[in-house]
């Protein structure tokens, strides 16, 4: 059974690799594809991340991911990947291929290790199914953690970015130039927010309207405070009010929200400390304090007999 499984997996891997290499070779010989690639390399703009040729390993993983029927949920998955900071053209296929590789790789590694050590642990089929399910959801867990980290990074750097934007607008810069300047200055504090602001400016330079570019910013990040900022900027643009005054008022509210979130986390700290105190520290204190008294009591009761 193990030999048959290993043979099938090796055959599938070799077939996928050969198919990916064949399609890559066919694409390299296509004159239309070569011409489009030259035009893409000559164009400077928002597609800088897509101009780099992906490594061969990513091509193979993307080829494996292309076998999965995921047309129904591709938009939702692509939105989640973009919010995690992955905006490559083939990132969806790479993600799906990673799920396939992890789902097949973990049971295979366990079978190989168990066979080499001649000590298989547990039932072969049950453990393989469990490891396959764990491996299938490992990339999803990684994307969720990456998305949460990026969300927190953008959220913590947003008030400072708004203060810089207020200074730039009051100094006479337009909204696009202010976004570009703030994106450069805020890069040390938050790389994700810097990239998003620079991308908004690039979209407006390529002909996208300011409203659509700002809405794309809110959709790409998924941060609630950025949604509020975008709604305020769109309303200010439509009504013709002062952008500097609106940004200053919104920056004050953002600083207030950041202080409230810090206070909320401080209040939660006492509740979170209750569990380690009750289950880890208090039992040790009871043993140290009541242990000698218990020993003396046991000796006294033993001496009385």
TrEMBL record:
GO cellular component, one term: plasma membrane
Broad class of where this protein is predominantly found: membrane
Membrane topology: Multi-pass membrane protein
Domain Type II secretion system protein GspF: from-to ranges: 162-290
Membrane spanning stretches: 91-113, 125-145, 273-295
Keywords on record: Cell membrane, Membrane, Transmembrane, Transmembrane helix
Subcellular location: Cell membrane
Name of this protein: Type II secretion system F family protein
Protein species of origin: Eiseniibacteriota bacterium
């Amino acid at each position: 059974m193990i030999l048959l499984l290993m043979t099938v997996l090796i055959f599938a891997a070799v077939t996928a690799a050969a198919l990916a290499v064949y399609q890559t070779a066919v694409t390299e010989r296509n004159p239309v594809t070569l011409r489009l690639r030259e035009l893409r390399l000559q164009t400077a703009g928002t597609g800088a991340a897509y101009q780099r040729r992906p490594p061969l390993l990513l091509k193979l993983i993307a080829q494996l991911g292309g076998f999965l029927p995921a047309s129904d949920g591709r938009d939702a998955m692509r939105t989640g990947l973009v919010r995690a900071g992955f905006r490559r053209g083939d990132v969806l296929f790479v993600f799906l291929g990673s799920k396939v590789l992890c789902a097949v790789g973990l049971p295979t590694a366990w079978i190989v290790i168990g066979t080499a050590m001649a000590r298989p642990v547990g039932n072969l089929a049950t453990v393989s199914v469990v490891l396959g399910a764990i491996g299938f959801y490992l990339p999803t867990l990684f994307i969720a953690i990456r998305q949460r980290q990026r969300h927190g990074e953008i959220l913590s750097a947003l008030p400072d970015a708004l203060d810089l934007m207020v200074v730039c607008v009051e100094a006479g810069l337009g909204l696009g130039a202010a976004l570009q300047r703030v994106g450069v200055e805020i890069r040390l504090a938050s790389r994700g927010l810097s990239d998003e602001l620079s991308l908004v400016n690039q979209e407006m330079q390529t002909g996208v309207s300011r409203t659509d570019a700002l809405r794309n910013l809110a959709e790409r990040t998924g941060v609630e405070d950025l949604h509020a900022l975008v709604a305020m900027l769109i309303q200010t643009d439509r009504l013709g009010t002062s952008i500097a005054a609106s940004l200053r008022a919104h920056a004050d509210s953002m600083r207030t929200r950041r202080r409230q979130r810090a206070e909320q986390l401080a209040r939660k700290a006492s509740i979170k400390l209750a569990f380690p105190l009750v289950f880890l520290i208090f039992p040790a204190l009871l043993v140290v304090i009541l242990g000698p008294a218990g020993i003396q009591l046991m000796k006294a009761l033993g001496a009385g007999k």
